[in-house]
Design a protein that fits this description.
Largest sheet: 3 strands, mixed
CATH class of the largest domain: Alpha Beta
Distance between the termini: 48 Å
Oligomer: single chain
CATH superfamily of the largest domain: CBS-domain
Helix content: 40-55%
CATH topology of the largest domain: CBS-domain
Structural class: mainly alpha
Order of helices and strands: HHHHHEHEEHEHEEH
Mean pLDDT: 82
Number of helices: 9
């Protein structure tokens, strides 16, 4: 079989996979009041899990995300359940259904990206990113503090701006992160003097960063790999914002 023929068959297979996933998303809409469901939600979920596993693999992060969405606990997406989703009083069942919808949208985006990466006419094409990107869901306001500032100062700035993290600088560039959880561990659990201890003594370094044009699921993977809830977002090598677990949870739950 020629490379061109194999590529054509792969594209046809991906086209069919995308269509199957779109039909699943359309059926999910009936549980959100856009029509009448043809089966119960439990049957739909089992079928959806099988579909994601078949099309994206049993170890896919998106399969895990869907399983968490069924429970309405997308925080488990990154194994960091201490940062709760901001459901804004939303009905629990609807909130969980919206999470499912977001996951299926990401599945479609992943399949479309794979299709776009398939070579055409025997020539390899660059992978095209389709779907929600990190830059679309980051927090664009960057708050920073000198690494020489005290932990107390860092805490006050985070409290003032209602932030979960701060970028720390050495007066020339960003050198690390300080987060609310780091502060809690350092001050409360370890008894560090917040008034005299500089933030640099407890900061996470170097700064974990991701390009703004990467898909949301890549930010999820990076957070899991680096065991962090906060990632700097870059464009042309410059930090332009921060994406956190909260941003991702808002996306997966449909709260914007």
């Amino acid at each position: 079989m020629s490379t061109r023929t194999a590529s054509a068959k792969q594209r046809i297979s991906l086209d069919r996979s995308i269509e199957r996933m779109r039909k699943q998303l359309a059926e999910l809409a009936t549980f959100l009041g856009k029509g009448t469901p043809s089966r119960n939600l439990e049957e739909f979920d089992l079928d959806t899990e099988r579909l994601i596993g078949d099309l994206l693999g049993q170890t896919s992060d998106l399969l895990h995300a869907y399983e968490y969405a069924e429970l309405g606990e997308a925080a488990g997406l990154v194994n960091m359940t201490d940062e709760a989703p901001e459901s804004a009083g939303m009905d629990g069942q609807r909130y969980s259904l919206l999470q499912r919808s977001r996951v299926l949208e990401s599945c479609i985006s992943e399949l479309e990206a794979r299709r776009a990466a398939e070579p055409k006419g025997g020539k390899a094409s660059r992978r095209t990113l389709i779907g929600p990107q990190v830059v679309e869901h980051m927090t664009p306001e960057i708050q920073s503090l000198s690494q020489e500032a005290s932990l107390r100062e860092a805490g006050l700035v985070m409290q003032k701006w209602k932030l979960g993290s701060l970028l720390l600088t050495d007066d020339q560039s960003y050198v690390g992160f300080i987060t609310d959880s780091i502060l809690a561990r350092a001050v409360v659990a370890n008894g560090v003097d917040a008034n005299t201890t500089p933030a640099k003594a407890c900061m996470r370094k170097p700064v974990v960063a991701i390009a703004g044009d990467r898909p949301i699921i890549d930010a999820v993977r990076l957070m899991k790999e680096q065991a962090t809830r906060h990632v700097a977002v870059t464009q042309d090598g410059q930090i332009i914002g921060v994406i956190s677990v909260s941003n991702i949870l808002r996306y997966y739950s449909g709260v914007v």
